[in-house]
Write a structure and sequence with these properties.
Elements lengths: L4 E5 L5 E3 L11 E2 H5 L6 H19 L8 H14 L2 E4 L1 H7 L7 E6 L4 E4 H5 L2 E3 L1 E2 L2 E2 L7 E3 L13 E6 L1
Parallel strand pairs: 1-11
Antiparallel strand pairs: 1-2, 3-4, 4-7, 5-6, 5-11, 7-10, 8-9
Length: 164
């Protein structure tokens, strides 16, 4: 099984995707949180600012010791080794630059292709790991819709995306 996916069809640029390197990409999302309904809204940014100010205040007042680079790396490594992650596909689809004639995306799978309207495909998420492990059995990615309608039954065995 090849883990490489391609974006082809009615696009200006054919894009090759390697989900095995997405674990290092800062755009990845925690799928457990995302499937629970946390899609990274503005509230998340606002709460991060509030927490950041509180953290800085506590450090200035010497209530707690600031984190070290060593402890931060340890936490990140543990998160990567145990996390379930996905990648929003919109940036990749936009970089492929669909032509004006493209109105749908054919998700190529092992079984049969799944045809999606362009807007639904643009807002989809590709799940690429489960509890720190790549999706070897029925991967390399599972496709989830932004509305969460297929969170229990994602499109599995995805092999590529073809714009039509």
């Amino acid at each position: 099984m090849s883990d490489i996916l391609q974006i082809t069809g009615e696009v200006h640029y054919t894009i090759t995707l390697d989900p095995s390197v997405w674990i290092f990409d800062d755009r990845r999302v925690d799928m457990e949180k995302w499937l629970a309904g946390d899609h990274g809204t503005e509230e998340k940014v606002d709460s991060a600012k509030v927490l950041s100010k509180e953290w800085e205040k506590e450090i200035r007042e010497s209530k707690i010791a600031p984190p070290t680079v060593k402890t931060e790396r340890k936490y990140k490594k543990q998160e990567i080794l145990e996390g379930t992650f996905g990648m929003p596909l919109q940036p990749f689809f936009e970089n492929a630059e669909p032509t004006d004639g493209a109105s749908r995306v054919v998700v190529e799978t092992v079984a049969e292709p799944v045809i999606l309207p362009l807007d639904k495909a643009l807002n989809s998420i590709a799940g690429f790991s489960n509890k720190g492990k790549p999706l070897r059995e029925d991967g390399p990615v599972h496709l989830y819709f932004a509305d969460g309608s297929n969170k229990d039954e994602p499109i599995r065995n995805v092999r590529g995306f073809r714009f039509e």
